[in-house]
User: Fold Ig-like domain-containing protein from Scylla paramamosain.
Amino acid sequence: MSVFASSNTVDSDGLKKTTAVLSFDTVTRGDMGHYLCIASNSVPPTKSKRMVLNVRYREPAVFVSHQMIGAYLGDSITINCTVKAYPRPVVFWQDSTGKIIISNDRFRVKEMLVGYSPPEILTMLTISDIKAEDFTTYRCNASIDNDKTREKSLAVQLSEISRPSTESSVIFKVARQPKNLQKPMSKQKQINGIGDRYEKPTHLAPGFPDIFSQPSHGLPNYGQGPPASSGNRSCSCTKLLYLLIGWWLLPGAVRGAAA
Assistant:
């Protein structure tokens, strides 16, 4: 767009006459509005003249906030549509069958002029007590001079939303603790493990029995049946007594043999 301003002054009957020209190279919708021509000289007051430039639209400009809207069954909803055009367009709503919607007990159409240059119209379609058959497509239409070739429309899809459940159940799952695959050691194994820490003698003195190869009777034998009879216990005690006496007399016998 290019705008040019020029003026020319001529003398007429002793007065100076000035002509100002405002030129538009290519007029667009944005050029539409009010323009003010102001004339002033050294003598007040200043004079002005307001002029309006209107640009005819080839077709209306239609806007909707959302082309897909969700609603609950039984609720009410309002669909907004804004239309801009000059001259002022004719605006109406249609359902999916092409039928023009007229205000009634459940459908209400309201229209407001919210702008003047260019004319801007806000149209609202309100649906009350929404039923299953109301979930369909609605079309906002606008035409200039009722000319089909200068008509524009936008569709809005109304879809159903499932209501959230009033009762909600929460299930808590507790993680299982891993099972201990190693069983606790029995008392007998604990006692035997203590004995395994000490090495068995590899050389014994001549004439002494290998008592280390025989089971111990001094410690309780857990988990291996009833204890031995009293006769066996006395025999084992006698052998142990002889062994201790032998160990005590052994140094003297060795010294006598050496002498």
Notes: Helices lie at 187-196, 230-258. The first strand starts at residue 3 and ends at 12. Residues 3-53 form one domain. Confidence is low (pLDDT under 50) at residues 216-225.
